[in-house]
Amino acid sequence: MPDIAETARTTRAWACYDCGKCTATCPIARAGSNYTPRRHVLATNLGKREIIDNGSLFDCLTCSLCDQRCPADVGYTGLVRKLRELSFREGVEPECPHGGALQSVMRTMAKGGTKQNRLEWLSSDLKTEPKQGEVFYWTGCTMYYDTFFTDFQLATLEATRAAVRLMNNLGVTPVVSPDERCCGHDLLWNGDRKNFELLARHNIKLVAERGAETLVISCAECLRTWKLDYEPLFEGKPPRILHLTEYLAEYLPKLKFHANPPAKRRVTFQDPCRLGRHLGIYDAPRRMLEALPGIELVEMRRSGPAAICCAGGTWSNCDRFAKQIQVERLREARATGADMMVTACPKCQIHFRCAMKDPNLGSEIEIEMRDVAELVADALEKADG
Amino acid sequence: MTVARPGSHPSPKRKRGSGSAPTVEALAGASGSDRSAARAEARGSSWNPNIIVFACNWCSYAGADTAGVSRVQHQPHFRMIRVMCSGRIQPGFVLRAFEKGADGVLVSGCHIGDCHYVFGNERALEQFEKTKNIVKLLGLEEGRLRLEWISAAEGARFAEVINEFTDQVRALGPSPLANSDQLSAVSYQRSAKAARLRAES
Hints:
The complex is a heterodimer of chains A (385) and B (201). Chain A has 385 residues and is an alpha/beta fold. Chain A has helices at residues 4-10, 21-25, 27-30, 37-45, 50-53, 65-69, 76-89, 101-111, 142-148, 157-169, 185-189, 193-209, 220-229, 244-250, 274-278, 283-291, 320-335, 346-356, 372-378; strands spanning 135-138, 214-217, 240-243, 265-269, 295-298, 340-343, 368-371. Chain A folds into three domains: 4-89, no CATH class; 99-250, Uracil-DNA Glycosylase, subunit E (3-Layer(aba) Sandwich); 256-384, Rossmann fold. In chain A, the strands form two sheets. Chain A has a four-stranded parallel β-sheet, with helices on both faces.
C-alpha cells in the first residue's frame, strides 16, 4: 500500500515547480471554491498527513483537466486517487450524494449472492447471446440509473438498447450477461479498493468464461476502468477492449444509413472526461456523428482535451460549485446554436439533466441530451430493423 | 436518528406454549443467542430474521408505543429506527440496511392525508417505489421490503403488521446478503471514525 512519500514519487509530484496552473485551470477552483490542487501537491511533497485526514481530496472532480495543463507532467488525478485510498483506509469517506444509495448498490454487488434482474430492458427485436460468443457487450449500470433518477426523464437505457441494435445491424450477436456487476469505477475513485477488486475479479472472470475476444463498452467510465484499472488484474490474454464508437468506426462503411433524414439537426459533442482526457478518445465519436446524414456537428468553445466535465463523475461531490460548472457548460452548449448535446457517458446525462431542473434558470439552459449510440441507431435504414 | 427498542418485548414470564418457561433470573444470565434460540423454539422455527423498521415520529413510532403500553404481544425480531417523517426515508437508508445484511425492511408512516408535515408521506411513497425497483434489480425478493401506514392509535395493527411481516420474511429465509457480515463490521468502524474526525475538524 503506497504511503504519501511513495505517492509523491509515482505521480511525479516531486517534479512540481509550484506554477499554480492546476489551480488556475481547476473547474471547481474557478467556480469559487477554496479547493486547490497546487496545495495538495505541495502537501504531498512535504508528507503532510492533514491532506489525508481533512477529506478535501474528495472535492476533486478527477476530470484530469489539470493533468492536461501541467508543464511538469504531474499526474494530479492519479495522486488524488492514491491519497483517497489512504484516506478511506483511515476512515475518511466522501459525503456521498443521494444518501449513499448508489454506493450501497455497488457494495451490494461486490458482496454478491443474489441473481440480478438487470436484463429486463432487452426487447424482443434485440438479438443477444446469453452464453458463448466472440463479442461481449458490456451494458454498464444504465438500468440502475434510469430506475433511480426518475425525476428527470432519464433514458440512458435507450443508448444501451441502441448499442445492441447497432451491433445486430452489423450482423453481430453480442454476449450480454445478467451476471455482469458494477465495474467498480466509483468505488475505486472513492478510495474503496477492496470492493473494487472484488468486482473487478468477478467481471474479468465472467468475460473470460464467455470466451469473448472483443469487449465493446458504451459507458465512458466502464471503458476507463476496464482499459486501465483492470489491467494489472488480468490473468492470461485480456480481451480487446473498445468503446462502442471505436468499434462502429471500424465498420463504418458497412453501416447503411437512410438517405433522407427527417430533419436537419445541429448537435454539439460533450467529451466525457473518462473517454477524452483519461483515454484520449476524441475522434471516434466525432467520426460517427459526422457520418450521419442530416447531422451537423458544431464544437463548444472548450472541447476535446479542454472540455469541461459534468462535475459529478464519482458520486462523491455535488455542491454549488458543481452546479455552477454544469450551468456554465450548458450555456456554452446553447451558445453554439446546437439544439442537442450529444455525449457518450450516462453520468454526463444525469448531471446535466439535473442542472436543467433549476427553476430559476428554466429554459435558459435547456437542451436536448442524447447518447451518440442513440443518434447512430436512429439514422440506420429502417429495412434492417 | 434514534435507534430504540420498542417497549413491547413479550415478557418471559408470560410466554405461552412451554411448560418450563425460563425464569427471569435464568434469562438475565443467558447470552443473547440463548435467548433468541428460546424465542425461536417458541415459534417453532430455528431461525429468526433481523428486521429493520423505519418509523416516523408522529404516527408509526407512536403506534408501536401504543402496542407496547397496551401489551399487544408481537414478535420481537426487529430494530426500530425513528425518523421525524417517513419522507426522510430515502433509498439509501433501505439499501444500506440490506447491504449490511437485514433480512427484511419495513417502512412505515402516517396514513396519507394525516402527515404531520402535510405531504411527507407522499414523498415517502415516491421514494419507496424507487427503492423497491432498485431492490428488484439487485435480485432480492420483493417480500423483504414493505410499506405500511400505521397511525398512533393503531397499536393492534402495528402488532399485526409486525407479526405478518416477520412470518413472511422468516418464510423467505436469511437474506442472501446476510452471510458476510465482516464487511459491515469494517464499515461500521469506518463510519464511527469518520464521524469522529468530522466532529473534531
